[in-house]
User: What shape does this take?
Amino acid sequence: MSTADKPVDHESTHGDVPDSFEDPGLPYHRPRRADVDPKAANKAERQVAALFGLSILGTILALGAYFMIDMTGEIASIRFANMMIGLGIFLAMMGIGLGAIHWAKTLMRDHEMVEERHALRSSDEARAGAIQNLQDGVEDSGLGSDGSGTSRRGLLKGSLITAVLAAPLALLVPQIGNMGGQWNTREFAHTMWRQGMRLTRDPDGTPIKAADVTIGSAFHVIPDGLNDLEHGKIEAKAKAVVLLIRLDPRDLKIQPGREDWSFDGIVAYSKICTHVGCPVALYEQQTHHLLCPCHQSTFDVADGAKVVFGPAKRPLPQLPIAIDDEGYIVAKSDFHEPIGSSYWTRLKNTSDGLSGDTEGGSH
Amino acid sequence: MGARVNAVAGGTANWVDERTSIGGFVKFFARKLFPDHWSFMLGEVALYSFIVLLLSGVFLTAFFVPSMTIVTYDGPLATMQGVEMSEAFASTLHMSFEVPGGLLMRQIHHWAALLFTAAILTHMARIFFTGAFRKPRELNWLVGFTLMILSLAAGFSGYSLPDDVLSGNGLRIIEGVTRSIPILGEYVSYWMFGGEFPGEALIPRLFTMHILLVPGLILGLIALHLFLVFLHKHTQYPGGGRTHKNVVGLPLFPVYTAKAGGFFFVVFGVIALVSAVFTINPVWNYGPYDPSPVSAGTQPDWYMLFIDGGLRLMPGWLFDVIPTEWELWGYTIPMNVLVPAVIMPGLFFGFLALYPWIEAWATGDRGEKHVLDRPRNVPVRTSLGVAIITFYVVLVLEACNDIIAILFHVSLNDLTLFLRVAVFVLPVLAYLITRRICLGLQRKDRELVLHGKETGRIVRHAHGEYVEVHEPLDEHERWILVSYDDIAPLEIAPEYNDRGVRRKGYKWDRFKQGLSRFYFEHRISPVTPQELEEAKHAHH
Assistant: This one.
């Protein structure tokens, strides 16, 4: 705190000003109230003890809530008990924490101390020793380069490196080979839909008559028989879900080559987004737009489910539909392209899917 | 009594020491000094929330069944009666509504996970802005960076375990992103899911990853992280008596044992309070995973928002004519997925991981740095940091675009179009503005050193001039404002030597010089004693 006379120093040494300021050293330690006033110290001690006491109360509260509140049955009472136990834990922890910190801040000695740092670099001696030890080791192993027998050692090194590089394959190939379950990526291109398979409501599986689908309505659809699958039901559903929508036929722009894929304004599109595969679940009746809630890709149902906004690039795949003898809506084939998100060999799969499925789906 | 206790303690200490030579460790650790500053707590918050995660997680594993086998719900929750669901989801409901305190433990675990990732990122920002990553701490920056990545892996794998409809859609997005990777993607997807999505393997696999692999790695790396902190000794903020060669602070025992130990209980207490009062991830409202339904307002946990935001931001068509999903030679390359979900995070994280080296090339400084920078004194670094945070925040906002659109009655599409521009423009603006602010603050510091603090006292000179009296700074105040490194841009050796021979490594040096100019071309030098002298004479 003798700062006032520092400038005077500078004045007196005028003409000989240092290049940089000098580190003034550690500041003066200001005592706290509890350092100088025993009453304040006693008060701080009582506060710390009170906080620890609060913690004990918190523990009692948590245990009390656990044992006293009836937690069988009623959801509301279970949630109440959880809250009371939580508040008890809060007090139990907070009391200890604040008590300890208050103790440290008021009663423990707070004179800052100085410790020197040491360069992390090892001494030259230690480094030389390390290098010597490694050289000795290399020599002992027979790999040292003393001029003779290089071919033998070369063989040793080469075979060791090859063996070490190859050995993980013994472990990894069977592991990775089995973890995939299967590797046939053509599965991506096929769904459960077949010629003549009825479109049914999700989740109860009741078939849908064309007459049920009024203009402006949308149905969440699963293939008939999906609910009866013993295995792979959820995987099949993840690919086969469809949205069935009826537009005013005057609004519907039929896509070239798909003239017979719809019926009197009724169209069916895959519900799986062509961006990264979320269900495109939101239908705006007024605009005929389908919106994916995950990333807001927007598809125009009236115009081949083409992308009008958002991160998707491709239209939703269309499921060709027809009406069977009893008036129910049925699929005419599987999708003609892979549904869902894009992948490397998607176009290769497309041609396979097309030829395989229009003939009735044999794969 | 005291003597008896002392004798017993002494005897025990002797017994242990004779078998472990622990005396040396205690001597080394007990009075190790740590500097004091509130910002040093951020890393502690991360550590303590991890401990809370371990404690609550052990409880959850006692009740969670990591199985995708379908069961029919039969429990106290009326809305789920008779619903088909995986055992994972059913056991989550069971532990929430039939195990006393189970719901609380789930909430503590989830809140602690959110705090864990938040504390890591905030801690990382503190390290970044104060330059604590500089030599010798570059390796520890990498350890911390890896911990950050692992915390995201831990969070995401745990978030997906209840097998509810929200997290299930998150997994489907992961499947879509994985499949988008050229050549390997389809196979990696099969490898992860054990076949087609969703399969029956995923939840058990995520469970093992979540409770063994990732926390094991985190635990090991935390040990390494703390070991390096002890080895390097903690950094300190500038101030009188604090140099690159010493550490000024209070001892581990008793002060930091009480403060840091106490702080663990505070962190635990706060998590318990939040968990008791605020519901998080009410999977019983979402329902079990089903590939068909999804609701509006589907946001992942906050730490994944920036990737989700990127996916929302990236258009499938540029200006409605250029597709971002490419079809080349019969193969599909979905850049609309790869750019936001693979390439952008790769560059973002890559830049963060390499940052200590980038700055070291720019400064060319080889010395150990133990005194922290005041962010204003390194304007370019600070501005880069703010620009990165701005970029991140734009992506987070975009991930919440549907919620923002509803809350503020704006068009979702307009908001997205705006943010598509903002993601490029705002970081640049943030950079420029932050740099101006830093330079302004540095000039203010110079002003303070040269002319002192305003006192509010106005005096009138004999010749009638009114002036405000300025009080010079004391030497401690002044030291903080003048004791920073004034780094000039790198000078490099010329390309050709006297004999006209081109030297090796010139291009690399040119790169480093360019970087250095970018960092240090515009700089405000600290006041020198000479300048202070002159300022004083100008006054009198």
Notes: Chain B touches chain A through 126 residues (CB under 8 Å). The domain at 31-373 of chain B is CATH 1.20.810.10 (Cytochrome Bc1 Complex; Chain C). Chain B has a mean pLDDT of 93. Chain B has two domains: 31-373, 435-539.
